[in-house]
Here is the input.
Amino acid sequence: MDPLHFLLQPPVFYPIIPYACTIFGGLRPGRMILIQGSVGTCATRFQIDFQCGCSTRPRSDVAFHFNPRFSSSDANIICNTLRKDHWLDELKFSGAPLRKGESFVLLFLFLTDKVKVSIGGQHFLDFTYRLPLKDVDAVGIYGDVTIKEISFLSSNPLKSVSADLQKTPLSKTFPMGLSECHAITVRGLVTVNPDELTLLLKSSDSIPFKLTANFQDQSLSYNSFIGQSWGQPQNVQTPFFLFYPERFFEILLLPEAGLFRLAINGTPVNDFRPPVFDLKSIEELQITGSAGLFAVQC
Ligand code: GAL
Here is the structure.
């Protein structure tokens, strides 16, 4: 089965609100979106809109408007659909376990005819679609809320895709060596109990590039093995560890003269400059450790 059939979308961390992004491939029954964040301390409302596009003028239809509203005592959730710039009949769900200033975990599970929403792991509401699910291809978040992470999952990513994953260690050779701007993309899914994930570029007598994700101490580092010894590991500077069990990841590695540029899940991180290396002498890419791989493009 084509791996791109599955939701292969990196998570989004700390988006600036208001925020809207495309849902790769649109929504389909069985997909889930997990949103972790916290309600503003003086919040009156926020909303998560599952939209048909990201247009503001004319405003995109909103198949599912999920709108917690806060009064002094409790939180109500208003759900509705916006069609051709008009709100349909709204539904109100009282007593939501969401509180001003507190963090939350929301899980939206999209089924054939309805979406099920759980808050903090407890089922809270169902909303029957009034617009076709297949038209929904964007999520927008607005209002008094801070979002830590949005992750895009298929119902059971491991079960549904494991047959399509290539196992590690995986090796690709470069008979002509590497050249500048020869981009390497690695997409994969971290295992359930990960230990370490490494990505190496090797020549016959050296390893000019090694990326290590260590799940034990949650560190991410570069190193190189040149002249018979390893150098000092160098931290990859990220605000938090970017790999999680059972989550997709995407690594983009771009060699240039004297350095390697790297982006993880679409976000550029600091470059790595090994003491010496010659791109043409690099003959192999090796990926080892706690992941299954969807695609390795060189
Ligand atoms: C309106 C409000 C909209 C939306 C809608 C849902 O009163 O202005 O932002 O929440 O209710 O029915």
